[in-house]
Amino acid sequence: MRMAALTCEICGGKLIGKPGGVFECGSCGMEYSTEWARSRIQEIKGTVQVEGTVEVTGTVKVEGGANQESLLKRGYMLLEDGDWKGAEECFDQVLNMDPECAEAYLGKYCVEREYHTIIQMAEDPQFLLASPNIEKVLRFGTPELRSQIENCQHEAERRKEIEARLAAIGKELEE
Fold first, then answer.
1. Quick one: how far is CA 93 from the chain centroid?
2. How far, in Å, are 67, 98, 115, 174 from residue 143 at the CA level?
3. In which element (H, E) is residue 95 found?
């Protein structure tokens, strides 16, 4: 694919980049600013072959591939289906992109405990705050997410107390 050069609006000559971000016409000498050149550069569509090193400043968006958000969504869908291996692979891919993604560590904890949904954490009296994945959720998560995890811990402790009381009542009734 050949990219068209920027051309002079006066004579149609080819513009040459100069130090300081100025573009100069090779034919008539007319100068253009960097802002003018940016406004004339169009989006490239299709396949582009690049040889050598390319330095990019700013953000590059690649469309069509999996991104962090889509992988998290897919991972949680696989949890619902009970596809533990598939879910863990999705969460691992997210962590390869962002090793501090609390939501991916939360997903990995759900895989570890075979929870189909995050809600099951609050329902599980065996919820483990000491799990390495939960520790990372608490380390990297937003204050809201950390609060939710701590609430799950309190709920698990409350459920353990209730189970212990019910067991004691059951023993009394047997006697």
1. 9
2. 24, 18, 23, 47
3. helix 84-97
Q: CA-to-CA distance for 62 and 138, rounded, in angstroms?
A: 31
Whole-angstrom CA distances from 101 to 7, 54, 118, 143 are 46, 29, 16, 14
Confidence label for 1 from pLDDT (cuts 50, 70 and 90): very low
Q: What is the pTM of this model?
A: 0.58
**Band (82; pLDDT cuts 50, 70, 90):** very high
Contact 102, 145 (CB under 8 A): yes
Position 52, amino acid? G
- Tell which residue, 127, 149, 123, 125, has the closest CA to residue 136: 149
